[in-house]
């Protein structure tokens, strides 16, 4: 999952390390040359100065004076503390200039865009990375690699975690029945997600009923009935051509009468531009007033999925999103962008065709995996 993006983020880390290393060597040599050229009464001290300047990042004067103090303090003692701390400070000290970042940041932006990260999201990530790296560049004893890692971690988490809430807690606290309606374009995995979520709820002790608001597509009743049979769930459906709002309403009535916790309302695939079908969604909203409307799309659709999430949210407000087929997605662009662009969280990832292939979306875990070693 998201392997392409993982590789690109790891190249960014290498790029920054390389470009700052390249910076440090000539600066160190310059400083050493300067130090050597200085008139000095004690040539040994000058050599030490030059050495430590070459080790560090060009700030020869500071380092040398710290080292001299340190030498005095450590004389006759096994305590390495001050000198070693000073040395760690000198070598761990990172000065990252804007120009060191220019090229790696440009490459990072290209990599994000190639991975289908939405433009405004990529820009936001870049801004956070730049601010973190320049603003705190003088932080002690942190290697360039660690600094890049932290900058990327914070930048990604900032955009990915927008609007996150704990879905399970929301279900636990909601007045029952809780009604959830699923929307999205054709074939993205709405019906499959409903079946998976019904199983997910069952595993956590919540009963659910399926209501087939897809009265549009031929074969939709049969398809969802197969899931209901396999999972042994009740299905409420009307004939093809019926009113989807009426079906979901009946689902809610059934749940009330039978103490069922959650109503999962399916709908036909539609484009946000199909006026008739969008009017149906409005009617569902009016008649049923669902507690949650979840937008479903495929992670593999990348930028298209991001645009559709935005358009659906504008046409008929959503509360969250489910990204399916994440198992087949290497770009990760939709997973990174949807929450930032819509202001609504991704709640689940579909990770396969089995009923158990539904994973709670955890922004922190996603960032860790994107920045992971393997
Ligand atoms: N690999 C993979 N396939 C999935 C996933 N979710 C759904 N699918 C497959 O995607 C196809 C379409 O799924 P459906 O659930 O029928 O999609 P839909 O949105 O209900 O489609 P319409 O009702 O026609 O709009 C099926 O073959 C599913 O098995 C997923 O997370 N991973
Ligand atoms: Mg369907």
From TrEMBL:
Its annotated compartments are:
Cell membrane; Cytoplasm
Question: What GO molecular functions are on record for this protein?
Answer: GTP binding; GTPase activity; signal recognition particle binding
Broad EC category: hydrolase
One Pfam family assigned to this protein is SRP54
Give me the stretches of Basic and acidic residues compositional bias: 1-14
The UniProt entry's coiled-coil ranges are: none
What GO CC terms are in its UniProt record? cytoplasm; plasma membrane
List residues of the SRP54-type proteins GTP-binding domain: 345-358
Q: From start to end residue, where is composition biased (Low complexity)?
A: 33-64
> Main localization of the protein?
membrane
For biological process, the GO terms are: SRP-dependent cotranslational protein targeting to membrane
Asked whether the UniProt record includes Aminoacyl-tRNA synthetase among its keywords, one would answer no
Q: Which InterPro entries match?
A: AAA+_ATPase, P-loop_NTPase, Signal_recog_particl_SRP54_hlx, SR_rcpt_FtsY, SRP/SRP_N, SRP54_GTPase_dom, SRP54_N_sf
- Which positions are annotated as binding GTP? 184-191, 266-270, 324-327
Enzyme Commission no = 3.6.5.4
The catalysed reaction is: GTP + H2O = GDP + phosphate + H(+)
User: Which parts of the sequence are annotated with region: Disordered?
Assistant: 1-84
> What SMART domains does the entry give?
AAA, SRP54, SRP54_N
Stated membrane topology is:
Peripheral membrane protein
Self-association or partners: how does it assemble? Part of the signal recognition particle protein translocation system, which is composed of SRP and FtsY.
Q: Which family does it belong to?
A: Belongs to the GTP-binding SRP family. FtsY subfamily.
Q: Which HAMAP family match?
A: FtsY (MF_00920)
Q: Its function?
A: Involved in targeting and insertion of nascent membrane proteins into the cytoplasmic membrane. Acts as a receptor for the complex formed by the signal recognition particle (SRP) and the ribosome-nascent chain (RNC).
Put simply, this protein is called Signal recognition particle receptor FtsY
Q: Which organism is this entry from?
A: Halorubrum aquaticum
Q: Which gene encodes it?
A: ftsY
């Amino acid at each position: 999952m998201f392997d392409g993006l993982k590789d690109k983020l790891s190249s960014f880390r290498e790029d920054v390390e390389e470009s700052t290393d390249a910076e440090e060597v000539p600066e160190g040599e310059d400083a050493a040359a300067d130090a050597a050229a200085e008139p000095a009464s004690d040539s040994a001290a000058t050599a030490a100065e030059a050495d430590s300047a070459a080790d560090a990042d060009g700030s020869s004067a500071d380092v040398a004076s710290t080292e001299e103090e340190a030498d005095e303090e450590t004389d006759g003692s096994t305590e390495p503390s001050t000198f070693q701390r000073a040395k760690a400070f000198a070598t761990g000290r990172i000065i990252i200039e804007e120009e060191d970042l220019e090229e790696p940041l440009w490459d990072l932006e290209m990599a994000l865009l190639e991975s289908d990260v939405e433009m405004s999201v990529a820009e936001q990530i870049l801004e956070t990375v730049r601010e973190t790296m320049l603003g705190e560049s003088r932080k002690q004893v942190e290697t360039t690699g660690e600094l890049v890692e932290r900058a990327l971690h914070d930048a990604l988490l900032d955009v990915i975690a927008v609007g996150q809430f704990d879905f399970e807690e929301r279900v636990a606290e909601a007045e029952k029945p809780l009604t959830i309606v699923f929307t999205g374009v054709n074939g993205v995995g709405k019906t499959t997600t409903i079946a998976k979520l019904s199983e997910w709820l069952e595993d956590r002790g919540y009963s659910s009923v399926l209501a087939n608001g897809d009265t549009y597509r031929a074969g939709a009743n049969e398809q969802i009935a197969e899931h209901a049979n396999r999972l042994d769930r009740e299905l409420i459906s009307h004939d093809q051509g019926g009113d989807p709002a009426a079906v979901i309403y009946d689902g809610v009535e059934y749940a009330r009468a039978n103490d069922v916790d959650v109503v999962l309302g399916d709908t036909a695939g539609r484009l946000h531009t199909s006026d008739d079908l969008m009017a149906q969604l409005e009617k569902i909203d009016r008649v049923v007033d669902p507690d949650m409307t979840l937008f479903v799309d495929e992670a593999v659709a990348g930028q298209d999925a991001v645009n559709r999430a935005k358009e659906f949210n504008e046409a008929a407000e959503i509360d969250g999103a489910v990204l399916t087929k994440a198992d087949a997605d290497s770009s990760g662009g939709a997973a990174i962008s949807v929450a930032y662009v819509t202001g609504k969280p991704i709640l689940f990832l579909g990770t396969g065709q089995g009923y158990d292939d539904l994973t709670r979306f955890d922004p922190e875990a996603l960032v860790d995996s994107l920045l992971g070693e393997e």
